[in-house]
Amino acid sequence: MQILNSILGYAADEPFDSALHDLGHADKVEYLTISPEDTSRRRMKVITNKGTECAIALNRDQQLSDGAVLNISDDRAIVVLSLIHIYEPTRLLSISY
To answer: What is the model's pLDDT at position 90?
Structure first.
């Protein structure tokens, strides 16, 4: 089991964006998909999209969010993917005159 105890940075920030781009081409980026309700949790067990079992144990001053990089090396990266960005609901507005 991979133990993840800190947020290293965010996928859109340097130097992570270029490193994740390169790892992505080699199919070495794994995603932890979490619901918006779980972003406030600091401890949980989850499985990446590639089957890696992970235990998240963050400090109280850190909170999970979309794009959080929890692990990065030459062999693999583990990044948080929030469900809100996958299935963003459509809102309908009805106007009557």
So the answer is: 56
